[in-house]
Amino acid sequence: MTECTSVVPTPVIELKIEIISEVSAFRRLKNEWNALLAQSAKKSFFLTWEWQFHWWEFYQTIGVKKILHIIVIRDVSGKIQAILPLYKAAVRSIFRRKLHLFYFIGSGHESSEYLDALILADHDPQIVDIALESLQQSGTHGLHFSDLRDDSFLVPVLQKWAAQKTIYAEKRDWKTCPFIPLQGDYDSFINSLSKNMRYNIRRRTRNLQKNHGVNFRLTETLAEAEQAVTILYDLHRKRWATREGASKFDDPQREKFHRHIAPVLLQSGYLRFFILEVDKQPVATLYCFSYGGHVYYYQAGMEPEMEKKSIGMVVMGKAIEASFDEGAHEYDFLRGLEDYKFRWTDQTRDTFILEIAFSKAAATHFAAQAKWRNIKKQIKKVIKD
Description:
The protein is built from 11 helices and 15 strands. The chain is α+β, with helices and mostly antiparallel strands.
């Protein structure tokens, strides 16, 4: 007797791809964009429509010429299944040839972390194939994607795709981001720190409150959000005036951007602007964002004359405590290996750059850059030794 096995055919989902190249169309995506992100395989504040759209609106004409190229994939009913938020820009190769590459919206100008595709967690595999083929057939020479987490959606997908196509692909280290998993409550967290750190946090906070009128507050109104950016930059500049070198954050264009976006983020519920006042004067501020149970620490401003009183430690502790109180499950310090971050945590995650060449010219360009980076590493090693 012959055993028969019935084969159920896999349904083919009808999909439609569209390329968003106009700001007006980008603007109209707001609700659909954020709804997709809420159901996406990977989430990040820096993938919200608010951050992405206003970054583009502000920086599209600053620096190199950028061409908007957002890949949107919808099903037959019109529901968005995936978004790949990109722009195209030209670079000069080592042979002075102009190469056109894809970049993530949000990369460059501002420190956007954890960039990725927005795609439903239970997406159909066809969606990935369609998006990647659209990239290769776009007429560009390749892509330069930065700020990707190692567990991002795109890293393994793009590496596998490039290997199948036998085209140049290189993944390399980019930044390191310390973070604190928020488990239990704030007191339990403080007790998990080193004995010296526990003692300093409690003593410095107690002494500040004993000797001064101390108020820790969260920005809650549009007027306060605009004022908070002014306070941040005033304190940031005063602090850097006492140091050597320059701050990349202290840039007129960046200041305009944050004055523009802080009220927008407040209205959307993402802004966490913490201000520490001592004797009714703002002496420290932390500019943070919140999304999906994550609080992201972005920038700080400190009154240098008060630093001996450890106001940085006090305001950071207050902000972490506030994050516990709102039910967040992670406090992310974002990029940077500053010593003070590692007094609070020993956990880090890395981000990466992924470059893929669609043409021989781009492959030559990327390979030459990689070789030059290795030479510089060797030179630095020799000098250090």
